[in-house]
Amino acid sequence: MYSRVGVQSLSCAFSYVWKQQRQVLNNVSARSLQSSSNASLKEILEQKIGEMREEVAQVRHAVGNQVLGTCTVDQAYGGMRSVKAMTYETSLLDPNEGIRFRGYSIPECQKLLPGIKQGGEPLPESLLFLLLTGEIPSVQQVTALREELSSRAQLPDRVKKTLNSVSPSLHPMAQFSIGILAMQSDSVFAREYARGAPKNKWWEYCLEDSLTLIARLPQVAAIVYRNTYYQGKQLEADLKLDMSARLTKMMGFQNPEFDELMRLYLTIHADHEGGNVSAHSVRLVGSALSDPFLSFSAGMNGLAGPLHGLANQNVLTWLLQVKEKLGGQAPTKENLTKICWDTLNSGNVIPGFGHAVLRRTDPRYMCQREFALKHLPNDEIFQLVSLLYEVVPKVLSEQGKVSNPWPNVDAHSGTLLRYYGVKEMTFYTVLFGVSRALGTLSSLVWDRALGLPIERPKSVTTRWIKENLVHKAASEAK
Ligand SMILES: CC(C)(COP(=O)(O)OP(=O)(O)OC[C@H]1O[C@@H](n2cnc3c(N)ncnc32)[C@H](O)[C@@H]1OP(=O)(O)O)[C@@H](O)C(=O)NCCC(=O)NCCS
Protein backbone atom coordinates (compact mmCIF):
# COMPACT_ATOMS: atom_id res chain seq x y z
CA MET A 1 0.00 0.00 0.00
CA TYR A 2 2.82 2.42 0.84
CA SER A 3 5.32 1.21 -1.72
CA ARG A 4 5.06 4.39 -3.76
CA VAL A 5 7.91 6.79 -3.24
CA GLY A 6 5.72 9.81 -2.49
CA VAL A 7 4.07 8.30 0.52
CA GLN A 8 7.35 6.76 1.62
CA SER A 9 9.20 10.07 1.85
CA LEU A 10 6.13 11.84 3.21
CA SER A 11 5.64 9.27 5.91
CA CYS A 12 9.32 9.17 6.86
CA ALA A 13 9.26 12.91 7.39
CA PHE A 14 5.90 12.67 9.13
CA SER A 15 7.38 10.39 11.74
CA TYR A 16 10.03 12.95 12.63
CA VAL A 17 7.69 15.80 13.38
CA TRP A 18 7.83 15.57 17.12
CA LYS A 19 11.57 15.79 17.20
CA GLN A 20 11.32 18.81 14.92
CA GLN A 21 8.64 20.49 16.97
CA ARG A 22 10.68 20.05 20.12
CA GLN A 23 13.57 21.79 18.38
CA VAL A 24 11.36 24.58 17.10
CA LEU A 25 10.33 25.12 20.67
CA ASN A 26 14.00 25.35 21.51
CA ASN A 27 14.38 28.06 18.86
CA VAL A 28 16.33 25.83 16.53
CA SER A 29 15.52 26.50 12.91
CA ALA A 30 13.12 23.88 11.65
CA ARG A 31 14.73 24.24 8.26
CA SER A 32 17.99 22.79 9.51
CA LEU A 33 16.24 19.48 10.10
CA GLN A 34 16.01 17.01 7.28
CA SER A 35 14.00 13.85 7.20
CA SER A 36 16.27 11.11 6.07
CA SER A 37 16.31 7.51 7.10
CA ASN A 38 17.37 4.22 5.69
CA ALA A 39 15.04 2.32 7.93
CA SER A 40 11.90 0.95 6.39
CA LEU A 41 8.74 2.98 6.63
CA LYS A 42 7.15 0.49 8.96
CA GLU A 43 10.13 0.45 11.31
CA ILE A 44 10.26 4.24 11.45
CA LEU A 45 6.58 4.62 12.05
CA GLU A 46 6.43 1.96 14.71
CA GLN A 47 9.30 3.66 16.49
CA LYS A 48 8.12 7.26 16.10
CA ILE A 49 4.49 6.74 16.89
CA GLY A 50 5.62 4.89 19.98
CA GLU A 51 7.82 7.88 20.84
CA MET A 52 5.01 10.34 20.23
CA ARG A 53 2.60 8.48 22.42
CA GLU A 54 5.24 8.38 25.10
CA GLU A 55 5.82 12.11 24.76
CA VAL A 56 2.13 12.93 25.08
CA ALA A 57 1.95 10.57 28.05
CA GLN A 58 4.87 12.45 29.62
CA VAL A 59 3.22 15.82 29.02
CA ARG A 60 -0.01 14.56 30.53
CA HIS A 61 1.83 13.05 33.46
CA ALA A 62 3.68 16.34 34.09
CA VAL A 63 0.84 18.84 33.63
CA GLY A 64 -2.25 16.72 33.03
CA ASN A 65 -4.15 18.15 35.97
CA GLN A 66 -3.30 21.81 35.25
CA VAL A 67 -6.04 24.11 33.99
CA LEU A 68 -5.63 24.93 30.29
CA GLY A 69 -8.67 27.20 29.99
CA THR A 70 -11.80 28.10 31.85
CA CYS A 71 -15.36 28.44 30.66
CA THR A 72 -17.67 31.09 32.05
CA VAL A 73 -21.44 30.94 31.77
CA ASP A 74 -21.24 33.69 29.13
CA GLN A 75 -18.77 31.63 27.11
CA ALA A 76 -21.01 28.57 27.34
CA TYR A 77 -23.89 30.61 25.90
CA GLY A 78 -21.51 32.45 23.56
CA GLY A 79 -20.16 29.81 21.23
CA MET A 80 -17.34 28.80 23.62
CA ARG A 81 -15.31 31.72 22.27
CA SER A 82 -11.66 31.70 23.53
CA VAL A 83 -12.16 28.56 25.64
CA LYS A 84 -8.92 26.58 25.38
CA ALA A 85 -10.26 23.04 25.34
CA MET A 86 -8.56 21.21 22.51
CA THR A 87 -5.18 20.54 20.97
CA TYR A 88 -4.53 20.89 17.23
CA GLU A 89 -1.10 20.40 15.75
CA THR A 90 -1.08 21.65 12.16
CA SER A 91 -1.63 25.38 12.69
CA LEU A 92 -2.01 28.03 15.35
CA LEU A 93 -3.84 31.36 15.10
CA ASP A 94 -2.48 34.37 16.90
CA PRO A 95 -5.14 37.10 17.31
CA ASN A 96 -2.73 39.81 16.21
CA GLU A 97 -0.30 38.07 13.93
CA GLY A 98 -2.67 35.69 12.13
CA ILE A 99 -2.17 32.09 11.12
CA ARG A 100 1.04 30.09 11.31
CA PHE A 101 1.21 26.74 9.56
CA ARG A 102 3.44 24.45 11.64
CA GLY A 103 5.10 27.58 13.00
CA TYR A 104 5.51 29.36 9.65
CA SER A 105 3.69 32.62 8.84
CA ILE A 106 2.16 33.13 5.38
CA PRO A 107 5.05 35.34 4.15
CA GLU A 108 7.50 32.70 5.39
CA CYS A 109 5.57 29.98 3.58
CA GLN A 110 5.60 32.09 0.41
CA LYS A 111 9.35 32.40 0.74
CA LEU A 112 10.24 28.85 1.77
CA LEU A 113 7.76 26.45 0.21
CA PRO A 114 8.67 25.21 -3.28
CA GLY A 115 6.51 26.61 -6.09
CA ILE A 116 6.25 25.76 -9.75
CA LYS A 117 8.84 28.43 -10.54
CA GLN A 118 11.48 30.34 -8.63
CA GLY A 119 9.91 33.23 -6.73
CA GLY A 120 6.37 32.09 -7.58
CA GLU A 121 3.54 31.25 -5.22
CA PRO A 122 3.94 28.09 -3.13
CA LEU A 123 2.49 24.85 -4.39
CA PRO A 124 -0.39 23.66 -2.16
CA GLU A 125 1.29 20.26 -2.35
CA SER A 126 4.30 21.84 -0.59
CA LEU A 127 2.02 23.11 2.14
CA LEU A 128 0.40 19.69 2.48
CA PHE A 129 3.84 18.20 3.06
CA LEU A 130 4.54 20.87 5.68
CA LEU A 131 1.20 20.38 7.44
CA LEU A 132 1.60 16.62 7.62
CA THR A 133 5.25 16.50 8.58
CA GLY A 134 6.15 19.85 10.09
CA GLU A 135 9.00 20.13 7.58
CA ILE A 136 9.64 22.43 4.65
CA PRO A 137 9.93 19.92 1.81
CA SER A 138 12.66 19.82 -0.79
CA VAL A 139 11.73 20.12 -4.47
CA GLN A 140 12.24 16.36 -4.80
CA GLN A 141 9.91 15.63 -1.92
CA VAL A 142 7.22 17.86 -3.42
CA THR A 143 7.68 16.25 -6.82
CA ALA A 144 7.23 12.82 -5.25
CA LEU A 145 4.09 13.98 -3.44
CA ARG A 146 2.71 15.50 -6.64
CA GLU A 147 3.25 12.20 -8.43
CA GLU A 148 1.61 10.37 -5.56
CA LEU A 149 -1.44 12.63 -5.73
CA SER A 150 -1.60 12.40 -9.53
CA SER A 151 -1.65 8.61 -9.30
CA ARG A 152 -4.75 8.87 -7.12
CA ALA A 153 -6.49 11.77 -8.89
CA GLN A 154 -8.75 10.00 -11.38
CA LEU A 155 -12.33 10.02 -10.17
CA PRO A 156 -14.16 6.66 -10.43
CA ASP A 157 -16.98 6.64 -13.00
CA ARG A 158 -19.60 5.84 -10.37
CA VAL A 159 -18.70 9.06 -8.51
CA LYS A 160 -18.99 11.06 -11.74
CA LYS A 161 -22.34 9.39 -12.32
CA THR A 162 -23.55 10.42 -8.88
CA LEU A 163 -22.42 14.00 -9.45
CA ASN A 164 -24.04 14.08 -12.89
CA SER A 165 -27.33 12.87 -11.46
CA VAL A 166 -27.56 15.76 -9.01
CA SER A 167 -29.71 18.75 -9.94
CA PRO A 168 -27.49 21.71 -10.93
CA SER A 169 -29.91 23.89 -9.00
CA LEU A 170 -28.54 22.43 -5.77
CA HIS A 171 -26.01 24.78 -4.18
CA PRO A 172 -22.47 23.86 -5.38
CA MET A 173 -21.44 23.18 -1.77
CA ALA A 174 -24.23 20.61 -1.41
CA GLN A 175 -23.11 19.02 -4.69
CA PHE A 176 -19.49 19.04 -3.49
CA SER A 177 -20.44 17.34 -0.24
CA ILE A 178 -22.46 14.71 -2.13
CA GLY A 179 -19.43 14.05 -4.36
CA ILE A 180 -17.28 13.51 -1.28
CA LEU A 181 -19.81 11.13 0.24
CA ALA A 182 -20.08 9.26 -3.06
CA MET A 183 -16.43 8.24 -2.63
CA GLN A 184 -16.99 6.78 0.83
CA SER A 185 -17.11 3.20 -0.39
CA ASP A 186 -13.41 3.59 -1.30
CA SER A 187 -12.46 4.22 2.32
CA VAL A 188 -9.53 2.08 3.35
CA PHE A 189 -10.01 3.29 6.92
CA ALA A 190 -13.62 2.02 7.08
CA ARG A 191 -12.67 -1.28 5.44
CA GLU A 192 -9.70 -1.96 7.69
CA TYR A 193 -11.52 -0.85 10.82
CA ALA A 194 -14.34 -3.29 10.01
CA ARG A 195 -11.69 -6.00 9.62
CA GLY A 196 -10.50 -5.28 13.13
CA ALA A 197 -7.35 -3.24 12.38
CA PRO A 198 -5.45 -2.42 15.58
CA LYS A 199 -5.55 1.15 16.87
CA ASN A 200 -1.90 1.86 16.16
CA LYS A 201 -2.53 1.31 12.43
CA TRP A 202 -5.52 3.64 12.10
CA TRP A 203 -3.50 6.69 11.17
CA GLU A 204 -2.01 4.86 8.17
CA TYR A 205 -5.47 4.14 6.78
CA CYS A 206 -6.54 7.70 7.58
CA LEU A 207 -3.52 8.99 5.62
CA GLU A 208 -4.36 6.67 2.77
CA ASP A 209 -7.94 8.02 2.52
CA SER A 210 -6.85 11.62 3.06
CA LEU A 211 -4.39 11.54 0.17
CA THR A 212 -7.00 9.97 -2.09
CA LEU A 213 -9.54 12.59 -1.13
CA ILE A 214 -7.14 15.52 -1.58
CA ALA A 215 -6.04 14.13 -4.95
CA ARG A 216 -9.59 13.75 -6.24
CA LEU A 217 -11.17 16.95 -4.91
CA PRO A 218 -10.06 19.19 -7.83
CA GLN A 219 -11.98 16.95 -10.23
CA VAL A 220 -15.04 16.84 -7.96
CA ALA A 221 -14.95 20.64 -7.78
CA ALA A 222 -14.49 21.02 -11.54
CA ILE A 223 -17.39 18.66 -12.29
CA VAL A 224 -19.63 20.66 -9.94
CA TYR A 225 -18.52 23.83 -11.73
CA ARG A 226 -19.09 22.54 -15.26
CA ASN A 227 -22.40 20.87 -14.35
CA THR A 228 -23.73 23.98 -12.65
CA TYR A 229 -22.64 26.68 -15.06
CA TYR A 230 -21.62 24.97 -18.34
CA GLN A 231 -24.48 22.54 -19.00
CA GLY A 232 -22.42 19.57 -17.85
CA LYS A 233 -19.71 19.97 -20.51
CA GLN A 234 -16.84 18.46 -18.60
CA LEU A 235 -13.14 18.63 -19.37
CA GLU A 236 -10.56 15.88 -18.92
CA ALA A 237 -8.08 15.94 -16.04
CA ASP A 238 -4.45 16.49 -17.09
CA LEU A 239 -2.66 14.40 -14.50
CA LYS A 240 0.74 15.84 -15.39
CA LEU A 241 -0.25 19.19 -13.91
CA ASP A 242 -0.02 20.27 -10.28
CA MET A 243 -3.34 20.29 -8.44
CA SER A 244 -3.95 24.04 -8.96
CA ALA A 245 -3.33 24.06 -12.70
CA ARG A 246 -5.24 20.79 -13.03
CA LEU A 247 -8.21 22.38 -11.31
CA THR A 248 -8.23 25.59 -13.39
CA LYS A 249 -7.87 23.64 -16.66
CA MET A 250 -10.74 21.32 -15.76
CA MET A 251 -12.83 24.39 -14.92
CA GLY A 252 -12.04 25.68 -18.43
CA PHE A 253 -9.32 28.30 -17.89
CA GLN A 254 -5.97 28.54 -19.67
CA ASN A 255 -4.09 31.29 -17.92
CA PRO A 256 -0.77 30.70 -16.12
CA GLU A 257 -1.36 33.82 -14.00
CA PHE A 258 -4.66 32.38 -12.79
CA ASP A 259 -2.85 29.10 -11.99
CA GLU A 260 -0.51 31.10 -9.77
CA LEU A 261 -3.47 32.74 -8.04
CA MET A 262 -5.00 29.31 -7.49
CA ARG A 263 -1.74 28.10 -5.90
CA LEU A 264 -1.84 31.04 -3.52
CA TYR A 265 -5.57 30.60 -2.88
CA LEU A 266 -5.33 26.87 -2.14
CA THR A 267 -2.35 27.48 0.14
CA ILE A 268 -3.76 30.26 2.30
CA HIS A 269 -7.23 28.78 2.87
CA ALA A 270 -5.92 25.39 4.01
CA ASP A 271 -6.02 25.64 7.78
CA HIS A 272 -6.96 28.09 10.55
CA GLU A 273 -6.31 26.12 13.74
CA GLY A 274 -8.82 23.68 15.24
CA GLY A 275 -11.84 25.50 16.64
CA ASN A 276 -13.37 26.95 13.45
CA VAL A 277 -16.53 25.26 12.21
CA SER A 278 -15.01 23.26 9.33
CA ALA A 279 -11.89 22.07 11.16
CA HIS A 280 -13.76 21.25 14.32
CA SER A 281 -16.49 19.39 12.43
CA VAL A 282 -13.90 17.20 10.70
CA ARG A 283 -12.22 16.52 14.06
CA LEU A 284 -15.51 15.89 15.89
CA VAL A 285 -17.02 13.53 13.34
CA GLY A 286 -13.68 11.76 12.92
CA SER A 287 -13.49 11.25 16.67
CA ALA A 288 -16.41 8.82 16.35
CA LEU A 289 -14.09 6.91 13.97
CA SER A 290 -16.23 7.91 11.03
CA ASP A 291 -13.86 7.62 8.06
CA PRO A 292 -12.20 10.66 6.41
CA PHE A 293 -14.84 10.87 3.64
CA LEU A 294 -17.67 11.14 6.18
CA SER A 295 -15.68 13.48 8.39
CA PHE A 296 -14.58 15.81 5.61
CA SER A 297 -18.08 15.99 4.15
CA ALA A 298 -19.30 17.13 7.58
CA GLY A 299 -16.64 19.85 7.60
CA MET A 300 -17.78 21.03 4.17
CA ASN A 301 -21.38 21.30 5.33
CA GLY A 302 -20.14 23.67 8.02
CA LEU A 303 -17.94 25.59 5.61
CA ALA A 304 -21.09 26.22 3.54
CA GLY A 305 -22.53 28.52 6.24
CA PRO A 306 -22.65 32.30 5.60
CA LEU A 307 -20.76 33.13 8.79
CA HIS A 308 -17.95 30.80 7.73
CA GLY A 309 -16.83 29.90 4.18
CA LEU A 310 -19.88 31.21 2.35
CA ALA A 311 -18.82 34.73 3.33
CA ASN A 312 -16.54 34.87 0.27
CA GLN A 313 -19.57 34.48 -1.97
CA ASN A 314 -21.48 37.10 0.00
CA VAL A 315 -18.63 39.61 -0.17
CA LEU A 316 -18.68 39.81 -3.93
CA THR A 317 -22.48 39.94 -3.99
CA TRP A 318 -22.27 42.88 -1.59
CA LEU A 319 -19.50 44.59 -3.57
CA LEU A 320 -21.59 44.41 -6.72
CA GLN A 321 -24.56 45.82 -4.80
CA VAL A 322 -22.35 48.66 -3.58
CA LYS A 323 -21.33 49.35 -7.18
CA GLU A 324 -24.98 49.38 -8.22
CA LYS A 325 -25.89 51.73 -5.40
CA LEU A 326 -23.17 54.10 -6.53
CA GLY A 327 -25.08 54.28 -9.83
CA GLY A 328 -22.11 55.33 -11.91
CA GLN A 329 -20.66 57.71 -9.30
CA ALA A 330 -16.98 57.25 -8.52
CA PRO A 331 -16.55 55.63 -5.09
CA THR A 332 -15.36 58.03 -2.40
CA LYS A 333 -14.85 57.61 1.33
CA GLU A 334 -18.01 59.68 1.88
CA ASN A 335 -20.43 57.76 -0.34
CA LEU A 336 -18.99 54.39 0.78
CA THR A 337 -19.38 55.36 4.44
CA LYS A 338 -23.05 56.05 3.81
CA ILE A 339 -23.56 52.72 2.01
CA CYS A 340 -21.85 50.85 4.88
CA TRP A 341 -24.15 52.49 7.42
CA ASP A 342 -27.16 51.62 5.24
CA THR A 343 -26.04 47.97 5.27
CA LEU A 344 -25.68 47.97 9.06
CA ASN A 345 -28.92 49.87 9.65
CA SER A 346 -30.82 47.36 7.53
CA GLY A 347 -29.74 44.69 10.02
CA ASN A 348 -27.03 43.07 7.88
CA VAL A 349 -23.40 42.38 8.59
CA ILE A 350 -20.70 43.76 6.32
CA PRO A 351 -19.35 40.54 4.86
CA GLY A 352 -15.60 39.98 4.88
CA PHE A 353 -15.03 42.02 8.05
CA GLY A 354 -14.70 40.78 11.61
CA HIS A 355 -13.39 37.52 12.99
CA ALA A 356 -14.01 35.29 15.96
CA VAL A 357 -10.30 35.16 16.90
CA LEU A 358 -8.33 37.65 14.79
CA ARG A 359 -7.97 41.22 16.05
CA ARG A 360 -6.03 42.72 13.14
CA THR A 361 -6.15 42.61 9.34
CA ASP A 362 -5.96 38.99 8.27
CA PRO A 363 -2.55 38.21 6.69
CA ARG A 364 -4.49 36.11 4.17
CA TYR A 365 -6.20 39.36 3.11
CA MET A 366 -2.84 41.10 2.88
CA CYS A 367 -1.18 38.53 0.64
CA GLN A 368 -4.16 38.60 -1.72
CA ARG A 369 -3.98 42.39 -1.73
CA GLU A 370 -0.30 42.17 -2.66
CA PHE A 371 -1.15 39.76 -5.46
CA ALA A 372 -3.79 42.22 -6.71
CA LEU A 373 -1.43 45.19 -6.50
CA LYS A 374 1.02 43.24 -8.66
CA HIS A 375 -1.37 41.77 -11.22
CA LEU A 376 -4.58 43.83 -11.31
CA PRO A 377 -3.91 47.26 -9.77
CA ASN A 378 -6.39 48.98 -12.10
CA ASP A 379 -9.28 46.57 -11.68
CA GLU A 380 -12.39 48.51 -10.73
CA ILE A 381 -13.55 46.04 -8.06
CA PHE A 382 -10.08 45.82 -6.55
CA GLN A 383 -10.00 49.60 -6.27
CA LEU A 384 -13.37 49.47 -4.53
CA VAL A 385 -12.06 46.81 -2.12
CA SER A 386 -9.02 49.01 -1.43
CA LEU A 387 -11.16 52.02 -0.61
CA LEU A 388 -13.45 49.94 1.61
CA TYR A 389 -10.35 48.88 3.54
CA GLU A 390 -10.05 52.52 4.57
CA VAL A 391 -13.77 52.99 5.25
CA VAL A 392 -15.31 49.86 6.82
CA PRO A 393 -13.06 49.50 9.90
CA LYS A 394 -13.88 53.09 10.87
CA VAL A 395 -17.63 52.52 10.44
CA LEU A 396 -17.60 49.25 12.38
CA SER A 397 -15.51 50.80 15.16
CA GLU A 398 -17.91 53.70 15.38
CA GLN A 399 -20.85 51.29 15.58
CA GLY A 400 -19.06 49.83 18.59
CA LYS A 401 -20.33 46.26 18.50
CA VAL A 402 -17.67 44.27 16.70
CA SER A 403 -14.67 42.77 18.46
CA ASN A 404 -12.61 43.13 15.29
CA PRO A 405 -13.37 45.74 12.60
CA TRP A 406 -10.63 44.56 10.21
CA PRO A 407 -11.01 42.57 6.98
CA ASN A 408 -10.69 38.79 6.88
CA VAL A 409 -9.63 36.48 4.04
CA ASP A 410 -13.05 36.55 2.38
CA ALA A 411 -12.98 40.32 1.83
CA HIS A 412 -10.55 39.79 -1.02
CA SER A 413 -10.75 36.35 -2.57
CA GLY A 414 -13.84 36.87 -4.75
CA THR A 415 -12.37 39.97 -6.39
CA LEU A 416 -9.38 38.00 -7.60
CA LEU A 417 -11.40 35.01 -8.80
CA ARG A 418 -13.76 37.31 -10.69
CA TYR A 419 -10.88 39.11 -12.37
CA TYR A 420 -9.63 35.83 -13.83
CA GLY A 421 -13.09 34.91 -15.09
CA VAL A 422 -14.72 32.90 -12.29
CA LYS A 423 -17.78 35.09 -12.08
CA GLU A 424 -20.04 32.45 -10.54
CA MET A 425 -20.00 33.51 -6.89
CA THR A 426 -21.94 30.52 -5.60
CA PHE A 427 -18.95 28.40 -6.56
CA TYR A 428 -16.35 30.24 -4.49
CA THR A 429 -16.80 28.24 -1.29
CA VAL A 430 -16.12 25.01 -3.20
CA LEU A 431 -12.62 26.31 -3.96
CA PHE A 432 -12.24 27.14 -0.28
CA GLY A 433 -13.26 23.54 0.44
CA VAL A 434 -10.65 22.05 -1.91
CA SER A 435 -8.06 24.00 0.06
CA ARG A 436 -9.48 23.27 3.52
CA ALA A 437 -8.93 19.55 2.86
CA LEU A 438 -5.17 20.07 3.14
CA GLY A 439 -5.29 21.29 6.73
CA THR A 440 -8.24 19.46 8.20
CA LEU A 441 -7.26 16.07 6.78
CA SER A 442 -3.61 16.48 7.82
CA SER A 443 -4.89 17.17 11.29
CA LEU A 444 -7.22 14.17 11.15
CA VAL A 445 -4.24 11.91 10.38
CA TRP A 446 -2.58 13.27 13.52
CA ASP A 447 -5.74 12.74 15.55
CA ARG A 448 -5.61 9.04 14.73
CA ALA A 449 -1.82 8.86 15.17
CA LEU A 450 -2.17 10.28 18.66
CA GLY A 451 -5.13 8.06 19.44
CA LEU A 452 -7.40 10.96 20.38
CA PRO A 453 -10.66 9.65 21.85
CA ILE A 454 -14.24 10.41 20.92
CA GLU A 455 -15.12 14.02 21.76
CA ARG A 456 -17.81 14.45 24.36
CA PRO A 457 -17.86 17.76 26.24
CA LYS A 458 -20.38 18.11 29.06
CA SER A 459 -23.44 20.26 28.54
CA VAL A 460 -25.78 21.68 31.17
CA THR A 461 -29.28 23.16 31.07
CA THR A 462 -30.23 26.71 32.04
CA ARG A 463 -32.11 25.16 34.94
CA TRP A 464 -28.88 23.43 36.04
CA ILE A 465 -27.08 26.79 35.96
CA LYS A 466 -29.84 28.39 38.03
CA GLU A 467 -29.86 25.59 40.59
CA ASN A 468 -26.10 25.30 40.86
CA LEU A 469 -24.83 28.83 40.29
CA VAL A 470 -27.63 31.41 40.57
CA HIS A 471 -29.13 29.99 43.79
CA LYS A 472 -25.68 29.41 45.26
CA ALA A 473 -24.67 33.01 44.55
CA ALA A 474 -27.94 34.24 46.08
CA SER A 475 -27.53 32.20 49.26
CA GLU A 476 -23.90 33.32 49.65
CA ALA A 477 -25.02 36.94 49.33
CA LYS A 478 -27.44 36.56 52.26
C1 LIG B 1 -16.84 36.41 11.50
C2 LIG B 1 -17.95 36.67 12.51
C3 LIG B 1 -19.03 35.59 12.33
C4 LIG B 1 -17.39 36.59 13.92
O1 LIG B 1 -18.48 36.62 14.80
P1 LIG B 1 -18.28 37.00 16.34
O2 LIG B 1 -17.07 36.33 16.88
O3 LIG B 1 -19.59 36.75 17.01
O4 LIG B 1 -17.96 38.56 16.19
P2 LIG B 1 -18.08 39.69 17.28
O5 LIG B 1 -17.78 39.22 18.66
O6 LIG B 1 -17.28 40.83 16.75
O7 LIG B 1 -19.64 40.05 17.21
C5 LIG B 1 -20.18 41.06 18.05
C6 LIG B 1 -21.31 41.74 17.32
O8 LIG B 1 -20.79 42.44 16.18
C7 LIG B 1 -21.48 42.04 15.02
N1 LIG B 1 -20.57 41.97 13.90
C8 LIG B 1 -19.46 41.22 13.79
N2 LIG B 1 -18.92 41.37 12.56
C9 LIG B 1 -19.71 42.24 11.90
C10 LIG B 1 -19.69 42.75 10.59
N3 LIG B 1 -18.77 42.41 9.69
N4 LIG B 1 -20.67 43.61 10.23
C11 LIG B 1 -21.62 43.97 11.12
N5 LIG B 1 -21.71 43.49 12.37
C12 LIG B 1 -20.75 42.63 12.75
C13 LIG B 1 -21.99 40.65 15.37
O9 LIG B 1 -23.06 40.27 14.49
C14 LIG B 1 -22.37 40.79 16.80
O10 LIG B 1 -23.61 41.47 16.84
P3 LIG B 1 -24.75 41.00 17.88
O11 LIG B 1 -24.14 41.17 19.23
O12 LIG B 1 -25.87 41.95 17.58
O13 LIG B 1 -25.07 39.58 17.55
C15 LIG B 1 -18.55 38.09 12.30
O14 LIG B 1 -17.53 39.03 12.41
C16 LIG B 1 -19.28 38.24 10.98
O15 LIG B 1 -20.46 37.92 10.89
N6 LIG B 1 -18.57 38.76 9.92
C17 LIG B 1 -19.14 38.87 8.62
C18 LIG B 1 -19.14 37.52 7.93
C19 LIG B 1 -17.73 37.06 7.58
O16 LIG B 1 -16.97 37.83 7.05
N7 LIG B 1 -17.43 35.79 7.84
C20 LIG B 1 -16.15 35.20 7.48
C21 LIG B 1 -15.30 34.95 8.65
S1 LIG B 1 -13.71 34.39 8.19
Automatic annotation (TrEMBL):
N-terminal signal peptide: none
Molecular functions per Gene Ontology: acyltransferase activity, acyl groups converted into alkyl on transfer
Keyword check for Transferase: yes
Alphabetical keyword list: Transferase
Active site: residue positions: 308, 355, 410
GO cellular component, one term: mitochondrial matrix
GO biological process: carbohydrate metabolic process; citrate metabolic process; tricarboxylic acid cycle
Listed InterPro entries: Citrate_synth-like_lrg_a-sub, Citrate_synth-like_sm_a-sub, Citrate_synthase, Citrate_synthase_AS, Citrate_synthase_euk, Citrate_synthase_sf
The organism's place on the tree of life at top rank: Eukaryota
Similarity comment text for this entry: Belongs to the citrate synthase family.
Name the UniProt record assigns to this protein: Citrate synthase
UniProt organism field: Galdieria yellowstonensis
